[in-house]
Amino acid sequence: MKLTGLRYILPEPFISLRRNVGMTVAAVMTVILTLYLCGIFALLVSNINRNAEVMEAAVEIKVFIEDGINQEQMDHLSAQVRSLDGVASIKFVSRAEGLEQMSSKFGNSEEILAAIDTNPLPNSYTLKAASPELVTSIAEKVEKLPNVLAVRYGQGSIEKMFIFMNWIRTLGIGLMVLLGFSAIILISMNIRLSVEARKEEIQVMKYVGASNSFIIWPFILEGMLLGLLGGGLACILVLLSYNAVLNLILNSLNFLTFVSLGEIAFLLTSGMLLIGLLLGAVGSAIAVRKHVNV
């Protein structure tokens, strides 16, 4: 494209935005709302994933061993468990260690230990799975082995956690898509007004031999400018909101693990600006294709 063409195309989006101030503000506000909610959902899913990873890493399979078996039988059971696919580690926990671990979870372990005449806990193994998804299958296989009294791994809670995670992801993606469509529609309406306002000018340009790109690009740039402006403002709002909420939550829920602002600032900013540009470009392309007969 020639330099003279660029001199015409580049100022046109700014002129058009000033010409339709009302629709410009509405389109920018829609992009801001869309990307703000998308950013909040992205941060929510990121933090849920981070805490899920921590919880998954802490998931253990407790294998309680029957009383009265000899050392050879215990060694054989240990070898059988180690041979199972997906078992990352195995640790023997004696009856005394098991009672001490249990009592330490309920306060003063010395008082609890003193109050118990006989240790009711059996010897056990603590297993770690290579992947959280393998916990259930490993537990089912171990439970069928000889000399195993019982297997415990938080049955039900792990499955519910995976279901909850999938629902959150699906809900977040669905809402982002719906909001994205609303932003594209409003940007298209804004560009359509620009096209209608310059209909006669476009016809004259076509009569004198203006190329399709020369006519279309000002509208594409206008939409991209709307998306970039809305994306930038939404990004600022998301980062400010997240920092404020994070400081508030950490004072009362310090047992949770949160993604720090420094970890996601660059990725979130670049992602939101890029999505804003794409929303603007798509909205403009739809309006130009439908309302400009080139």
Summary, kept brief:
By secondary structure, the protein is α+β, with helices and mostly antiparallel strands. 72% of the residues lie in helices and 8% in strands. The protein is built from 11 helices and 4 strands.
Explained architecture:
The chain contains eleven helices and four strands; from the N terminus they run H-H-H-E-H-E-H-H-E-H-E-H-H-H-H. The protein is α+β, with helices and mostly antiparallel strands and 294 residues long. The longest helix has 41 residues, at 157-197. It has helices at residues 3-9, 12-19, 21-58, 71-82, 95-104, 109-115, 135-143, 157-197, 199-207, 212-250, 261-291; strands at residues 61-65, 87-93, 124-129, 148-152. The chain has two domains: 3-55 and 159-291, no CATH class; 60-153, 2-Layer Sandwich (Alpha-Beta Plaits). It starts with a helix and ends with a helix. The model has no long low-confidence stretch (mean pLDDT 76). The protein has a four-stranded antiparallel β-sheet with strand order 2-3-1-4.
